Amino acid sequence: QSPYYNLLDAINGRMIEVYYQPIVSLSTGKIVGAEALARWRQSDGTFLSPDMFVPLAEESGLITRLTQLIIEKAFDDLGPWLNCHPEQHISINLYPDDLTSPVLPALIASRLQQWNLSPSQIALELTERSMVDPKSSAQALDAYRKAGHAIYIDDFGTGYSSLSYLQDLDVDLIKIDKSFVDALEFKHLTSHIIGMAKALDLAIVAEGVETDYQREWLNRHGVQYGQGWFYSKALPKGDFINWAENNL
Ligand code: G
Ligand code: G
Ligand code: MN
Ligand code: NA
């Protein structure tokens, strides 16, 4: 069977699972939300990383069905927990094709209503790649923002697009890519990214925080939030709720 049909079967069979990686305040260590991350469990029990199947989903036109499944599972998993914690949010990764789908905003709105949640409890992550053609994204992003969702720019600093989209589009937050957090020789560049975000009044999440040194440096330089193995890996629903309840 071809990889396409394997993926189609996995989506139809709802065999893609969602893990949640906490996003925390760097100054207090307390949880502010989580990112939903797809995991494809194979028949031998191992997980296939999204890097292996999201590109296939994009090329083969399955991405929006995958995103829809992730959104449905995220609400099934964490709807009750989000209802108990109105200040917490979940961020969902969207790809360029997702932005033209009328299905996704309707799905999010109906699930928010079902669980009596605020739109601010769902944030949307877009990679800089989605900003290569800002005009085609602008309408969808505006609609999501008007509906009350925050827009995050994912993998910030690794894209190929001009940064002018930051002026033109209403973005709320940038996620500084892990490569900047990893590499000490990029410190100079990283402090400029932080300065630019501040000038544009954007909040910042640092990705891939693995050490207390990184946490301390980022916090001292004004980065508000972090995500990474220093705090927690992405966790399945039960383990995530457990972690979150201990870090509220
Ligand atoms: O899960 P992992 O840590 O390996 O994530 C790798 C990348 O795959 C993430 O940075 C994210 O951009 C992408 N990714 C993870 N989950 C999803 C998802 O549910 N949908 C989409 N479109 N991309 C995802
Ligand atoms: O594409 P996106 O950056 O949204 O997803 C985050 C990715 O980075 C996930 O695949 C996640 O498993 C991975 N990740 C998150 N935190 C860490 C970390 O501290 N160290 C490493 N090596 N990878 C991480
Ligand atoms: Mn992401
Ligand atoms: Na990222």
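^ sodium ion complex. The chain has one domain: 3-246. The beta strands are 16-25, 31-41, 47-48, 89-94, 122-127, 150-156, 173-176, 203-207, 225-227, 235-236.
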